[in-house]
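3.2 Worked example (two chains)
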Amino acid sequence: MKNSKLSFGQNLKQKFWRMLYPIFPTLEHKFLFLHETERQKFHIGWLAQGKTLAELKLHLSKEWGFGNHFVAWEDKTQVLSWRKLDSFEKQYHLRVYSDGEIRGHYEFTPEAAPYKHFTEIDEQSKTEDFLKFLGEYVSQTKYVGHLIPDTSVPSQESEITYQGDSK
């Protein structure tokens, strides 16, 4: 769904968050003490043997529309934090950690419901959906020793378009 189909209120919220995006990392680091910095709930699996973080990013971006998620708490040892918008209100949020573990959840977007997003109200696992998105890039066996953040694949601006209905 394109932005033109957003309601007046949704457009205002989106404009507010676009202004906040450039300074959010600084704000997030100042308030990180409010967040448990360990790993999020909902283990999905591990990066599959022979697959790289760069390949995973390219796959998620090209095949499923995942992109950078600026408005997210930063967990210790995370090397990737990307989202796929389902609508203005809901998103899939995927994280990969330096040991290759992959976790993800389905939640409110910060743009639509900041309080519900940051307090994790109605967060869901949606493991089957994540397994579909990850395909051959996920394994139930750990093999990775240590991943580092990859900057070779440009981040997709996922806040620009929405898929699904916006009610």
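3.2.1 Second chain
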Amino acid sequence: MVLHQDPENRLIRVGAVSYLNTRPLIYGLTHLALRKRITLETAYPSQIADMLRRGAIDLGLVPVAAIPQLPNYFIDADYCIGAKAAVASVCLYSKVPLSAVENVLLDYQSETSVTLVRVLMKQYWKRDVNFVAGQPGYEQHITGTTAGVIIGDRALEYQHYFPYRYDLAEAWHEYTGLPFVFAAWVSTRPLPETFIEEFNEANAYGLQRIDEVVAENPFPFYDVHTYFTENISYELDESKRQGMHRFWDEMKFLQQP
């Protein structure tokens, strides 16, 4: 693969998820010299995928469920938003046990997590439920036999609100024995090799300074240090790539009757 310099040396447009879990990765992007070579926008996951599809950004932290839908893609960096076990911030919440759930509201901010819950329901939990697209405020409709997927910072806020909580990354690991990747840095064209090297260094910079990142991001609902060091796993290693490819394979089963 031939990597080339960006024409006219324009700034590379980077899109990152606006959730708390990206702060260690973003830290270096805003504190190192790389910040002079990029513009940085933040949005929720499904928006980032749409921005990359439209060409509004050059590089994005894209939900992995959206990656196979791109006509062309490059997984550029060695870092991601992943989990080896419980992730804490991607959960199915309910007021009744899973066996009694009839409807599942899907988080409108998500692409990967709402696909993951469909995979788990069909392949792992063996439940036939009705999936409903959630709208802003849908959390208030999680009641009776209607459960809901909540992701990101809001999921952490709801940790103790519902009597039943099913962590989707933990369930995936129980099902497959593999870690799960929620989002990876993706472009739709090759980026300069020197930029990718510097971008990887910037991602690593924040991960090496977790205490500083924690200090900059107070959060009253959950222990942020635990979240960054135990729940989220940031290195896109071989086991996570295996998990990602397994997820893409599992997605194909959703189209089968």
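3.3 Remarks
Residues 238-253 form the longest helix (16 residues).
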